[in-house]
């Protein structure tokens, strides 16, 4: 990382958020940046007067001190805590502008909600890359996997993943899943197999996506995977089962523009195979 902005991690003291705090502390130590541990008191349901707000904030402060105490002695980094109030997704998204990365736990099922609902909310609206961490055993894992589809978001996801893999002397696997036409159903439509033509075209898209990586990272080992049998979510989850990190863009070229989080990122977070980073597209400023 070139920025000195801290890494922030949100916690509610669940097993997932405890794992997220530990992951964030390790990353902050490697990057040489401070760590901020956040907790949000969701006060939207509290009506005037506020008899319980003080109690909630005191409990939140105790939770933060407990979370910081678990990692403070183990990591020689600056660790601070911050109590936020408001909606959880909105408060974390707003605070994310002060950070270089926001880390959250994968969530817990409650009140019938999905395991990934909160992670989805935060990843969809944060201003920086969001790392979502589950409770998987991380020992012995290696490699960085990134999903691509030819979009701008995918190109920037590759840039993030390549820098991550190179920094840790890891292998990079670039996965592109396409839906090729059925060879039987399309037989006779052209002299050449339509499926083969489309696959070859998409293979060029994959090659163009990783073009330049060898120049920027001469020692980086890059594997290209063009998947034609499975969808993006299944292909990425399978490829990252033993990976150290999975990286996906916030939206792909097939995403509806009004949606803040693409279907692939949404699906991956619901079947989290390993710590997964959702990258945000960054505007490129024109040089005068």
UniProtKB/TrEMBL annotation:
<dbReference type="InterPro" id="IPR014729">
    <property type="entry name" value="Rossmann-like_a/b/a_fold"/>
</dbReference>
<feature type="domain" description="UspA">
    <location>
        <begin position="4"/>
        <end position="133"/>
    </location>
</feature>
<dbReference type="Pfam" id="PF00582">
    <property type="entry name" value="Usp"/>
</dbReference>
<feature type="domain" description="UspA">
    <location>
        <begin position="144"/>
        <end position="280"/>
    </location>
</feature>
<dbReference type="InterPro" id="IPR006016">
    <property type="entry name" value="UspA"/>
</dbReference>
<dbReference type="InterPro" id="IPR006015">
    <property type="entry name" value="Universal_stress_UspA"/>
</dbReference>
<comment type="similarity">
    <text>Belongs to the universal stress protein A family.</text>
</comment>
<protein>
    <submittedName>
        <fullName>Universal stress protein</fullName>
    </submittedName>
</protein>
């Amino acid at each position: 990382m070139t920025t000195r902005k801290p890494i922030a991690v949100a916690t509610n003291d669940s097993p997932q958020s405890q794992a997220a705090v530990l992951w964030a502390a390790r990353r902050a130590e490697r990057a040489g940046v401070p760590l901020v541990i956040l907790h949000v008191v969701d006060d939207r349901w509290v009506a005037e007067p506020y008899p319980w707000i003080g109690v909630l904030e005191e409990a939140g402060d105790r939770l933060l001190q407990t979370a910081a105490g678990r990692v403070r002695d183990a990591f020689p980094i600056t660790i601070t805590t911050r109590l936020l109030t408001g909606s959880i997704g909105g408060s974390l998204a707003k605070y994310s502008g002060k950070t270089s990365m926001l880390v959250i736990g994968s969530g817990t099922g409650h009140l019938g909600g999905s395991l990934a609902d909160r992670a989805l909310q935060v990843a969809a609206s944060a201003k920086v890359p969001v790392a979502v961490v589950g409770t998987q055993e991380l020992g012995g894992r290696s490699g960085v996997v990134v999903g691509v589809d030819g979009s701008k978001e995918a190109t920037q996801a590759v840039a993030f993943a390549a820098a991550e893999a190179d920094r840790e002397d890891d292998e990079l696997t670039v996965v592109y899943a396409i839906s090729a036409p059925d060879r039987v159903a399309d037989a006779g439509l052209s002299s050449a197999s339509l499926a083969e033509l489309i696959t070859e075209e998409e293979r060029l898209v994959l090659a163009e996506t990783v073009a330049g990586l060898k120049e920027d990272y001469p020692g980086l080992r890059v594997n290209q995977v063009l998947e034609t049998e499975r969808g993006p979510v299944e292909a990425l989850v399978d490829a990252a089962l033993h990976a150290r990190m999975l990286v996906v863009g916030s939206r792909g070229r097939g995403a509806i523009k009004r949606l803040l989080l693409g279907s692939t990122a949404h699906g991956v977070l619901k079947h989290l195979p390993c710590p997964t980073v959702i990258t945000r597209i960054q505007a490129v400023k024109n040089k005068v």
